[in-house]
Amino acid sequence: MNVRNGATVAELSEATGISRPALYRILETLRTAGYVSINLRQQRYCLTMLVRTLAEGFSDEDWVTQVARPVLSALQRKVLWPVDLGTFMNNAMWIRETTRQSSPLTIDRGVVGLRFPMLQGATGRAYLAFCPENERKQILANLSRCPESGNEMLERPGELKALLDRTREQGYGQRYGEQPTETGAIAVPVMVGERVIGCINMTFIASALRPEEAARQHLAAMVRSAKKIATGVQRLETEEPAGDAWNRGYQDKSNTGKDDA
Fold first, then answer.
1. For the IclR-ED domain, which residue ranges apply (predicted)?
2. What is the structure's pLDDT at 253?
3. 101 vs 154: CA distance, rounded Å
4. Helices (H) and strands (E) in the chain, counts
5. In 165-217, at which residue ranges do the beta strands (DSSP E only) sit?
6. Whole-structure pTM value
7. How far is CA 25 from CA 5, 9, 28, 42, 127, in A?
8. How confident is the model at residue 39 (pLDDT cuts 50, 70, 90)?
9. Which residue in 44, 136, 179, 260 is deepest, having the highest Cβ count within 10 Å?
10. Which residue, 39, 112, 123, 129, is CA-closest to 88?
11. Bridge partner list, 7
């Protein structure tokens, strides 16, 4: 469902071999539990943010709370403007963490869980520019199948390609002179190897800064913060879950005891 921007029951049945009646029962159970939502008009089922908590050991929530949150707080104290962490899911960008409540320069109150179309903001543009080419092609194909407000640039592929090329060249995505016109934004990718696991976004008052000036003043600090988050995520991904470590230690002691006997 995540790869295909949601899926119909027929598509899921074809992909899994599970009968449609069984899939309806499974999907209704997942929907009731909050892991799946349904677009009634298109009859497409999509994963929700809650599904990310199902991972064993290292989870998506771990790196947002343990790694990204303190880094974003430190960055906001340095740049003063509010900063957010956006991550990709279901072919859109979602605010996962924000400092808007603590920034003295906040003029809007974006909240955690807010969804943005991929091509509408700086985070989505940065994500698309820096993610692997095969992922980018899949996302754009998904967006074309399910048009929505904010992604109109899909109808102008030459302009879209130029935007993504420029984003890669300058090292950041940007939004300026677009809705909401009172603010602008720049965003940098958080990369673990070839993966883009999220984007750091800084929002500023459009009448006070242009993106080029915002980048001149703050891009280096944003890039350093993105690298700190990436390093922290890599550390979390390689750490052994506490329960596994305890079990392994217990087994070692048990084996040692048997040998001594």
1. 50-235
2. 46
3. 34
4. 9, 8
5. 173-175, 183-192, 195-205
6. 0.73
7. 21, 11, 5, 19, 35
8. confident
9. 44
10. 123
11. 45
The answer to whether the CB of 91 falls within 8 A of the CB of 138 is: no
Residue 245 has pLDDT above 50, yes or no: no
Residue 103 · residue 82 · CB < 8 Å: yes
Q: What is the Cα Rg of the chain in Å?
A: 21
| Domain residue ranges in the chain | 9-54, 60-238
Q: How many residues does the chain have?
A: 261
Cβ contacts of 175 within 8 Å, gap of 6 or more: 120, 121, 122, 125, 184, 185
CATH class of the domain defined by 60-238: alpha beta
Mean pLDDT of 39-46: 78
Please check the confidence at residue 183 and state whether its pLDDT lies above 90: yes
Phi–psi pair at 45, nearest 5 degrees: -95, 135
Position 54 confidence tier, pLDDT thresholds 50, 70, 90:
low
Question: How does strand 83-89 pair with strand 44-47?
Answer: unpaired
* CA dist., res. 77 & res. 74, Å (int): 5
User: Distance between CA atoms of 206 and 200, rounded to whole angstroms?
Assistant: 18
